[in-house]
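If it is no trouble, might I ask you for a protein's amino acid sequence along with its backbone structure tokens?
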Amino acid sequence: MPSEISFILLTGMIFVFTYVNGFHDGCNVVATLIASRSMRPNPALAWAAVVEFLSPFAILVVGSSVSNTIQKLVGKAFYTDAGSRDTALAFITAGILAAILWNLTTWRFGIPASSSHALIGGVVGAGIAAFGTGAISWSYFWGKVVLMIFLTPAVSFVLGFLILKLLLALTLHAGVGVNKFFTYAQWLNMTFLAFNHSFNDSQKSIGIVLILMGIYGGAEASIPIWAIVCAALCLSCGIAFGGFKIIKTVGTGIYKVQPIHSFASQLTAGTVILTSSLLGAPVSASQIVSSSIMGVGAAERYKAVRWNVAGKILLSWFITIPIAGSLGALLFFLFSVIY
């Protein structure tokens, strides 16, 4: 297959993942807004889609530390060697496809697993199969991926707990009008959350695009504008169509949220994702939003939190990287025969 055609096909596959990421993870940004009946589903998804389209362009101003982390997971020297291009192509194809397959599986069952960790697991698993364990930057993997799997949900739970406690104390003697305030304030909060989600998640796809460009010998000095546009468009289209199974699980399956709970959860999740992005950590919106809801629910009525649902979500956090990694390795051996 000519290099130009294979590059286009593989780039298309990357943005298929981005689209799936949009309706799989992106729907988390509107889950509590819809569940608290503060906005109807279609307008909420439409506004979130607009924000998710605009957000990736902030990379041009703020920088792309998350994309840099993705690129450094597998040593550049391993996939840019012209003599091993077929191996490198099998590696990147397997990694992307593993992430797509795991995302579709968890979406099918309404499990808010992490698209980010599916992508990282697929790429790392395929990278090990292709180049060996020495190709993986374990300091980045353990420090900015695995550590954050445990740290960001814990921070989200505690911060959500504390923010709701504070809000309950401040509104203890407030009238019924306070509910209207939180209903409309969520719109601003959801914008904040959607912006930070798209800023973080778009960089993961862009990082894979830059790896692919490296495989084909392309320049990687700066992020091409077309990659930002495509990532923005695919994320926004994905969220516009909505992942209603996951919206239901996150919005109503963990805790029965009211506007004040949704406000606290959105503020928590947006803050944690923004901080993680600035640190260059490719975090999971699914984990962070779900944990913030658990914290908010526990702050008001611990027993009202559906801990059985929370347990299933927690399990998906632990198994995503190992399963996607194993799938990436298996697919590499398949594609190494094809290429």
